[in-house]
Automatic annotation (TrEMBL):
It comes from Saccharopolyspora shandongensis. Gene3D superfamilies: 3.40.630.30. Keywords: Acyltransferase, Transferase. This is L-amino acid N-acyltransferase YncA. One of its GO terms (molecular function) is acyltransferase activity, transferring groups other than amino-acyl groups. The keyword Cytoplasm does not apply.
Length: 165
């Protein structure tokens, strides 16, 4: 598939679209996430509004179809953001969608003065790990069992946004 991809920050009027793409992500690639489809399917719109208030979400669009999603979550110091909930529709993988989603998170984080962005990647997701390393994320030496899925081990990766960090 190829086509023009646009990325937009989700606004409150697009909560239903955010929910829909997030549920598609959980249904398609459950093992890649700490959350579950059953857990998020039953959540109210207030839950989605709260998630949007925590930090920005970005959706990649191919015309009117949502083909990817990612969020940027500030850490308590706001010197670092966390890239979370990244997903690209299987039909659009390899088409640059992941790149533009990561670029959106990095640009947002830079605009807020962050010095770095971190993320967690599961050991069982080597394609995601290769992608993140290709765009500049590096291991920081932290590995852990996922707090909600103890059978899954994940590793923290970081990308520096400023040379003084």
């Amino acid at each position: 598939m190829s086509g023009v991809i646009s990325v937009r920050r989700v606004v409150e009027g697009e909560l239903a679209a955010l929910r829909e793409v997030r549920l598609r992500a959980l249904a398609a690639d459950a093992a890649a996430f700490g959350s579950t489809l059953d857990g998020e399917r039953t959540r109210s719109m207030a839950f989605w509004r709260e998630r949007l208030a925590r930090g920005p979400w970005f959706v990649a669009w191919a015309e009117q179809e949502a083909v990817g999603v990612v969020s940027a979550v500030p850490t308590p110091t706001r010197a670092e953001y966390r890239l979370e909930a990244m997903w690209v529709d299987q039909a659009w993988r390899g088409e640059g969608v992941a790149d533009v989603l990561v670029d959106a998170v990095l640009a947002w984080s830079r605009s807020r003065g962050a010095s770095s962005v971190t993320l967690w990647v599961f050991d069982g997701n080597p394609a995601a790990r290769r992608f993140y390393e290709r765009v500049g994320f590096r291991p920081v030496g932290r590995r852990e069992q996922h707090p909600e899925k103890a059978e899954q081990v994940r590793e923290c990766l970081r990308i520096q946004l400023r040379s003084d960090a």
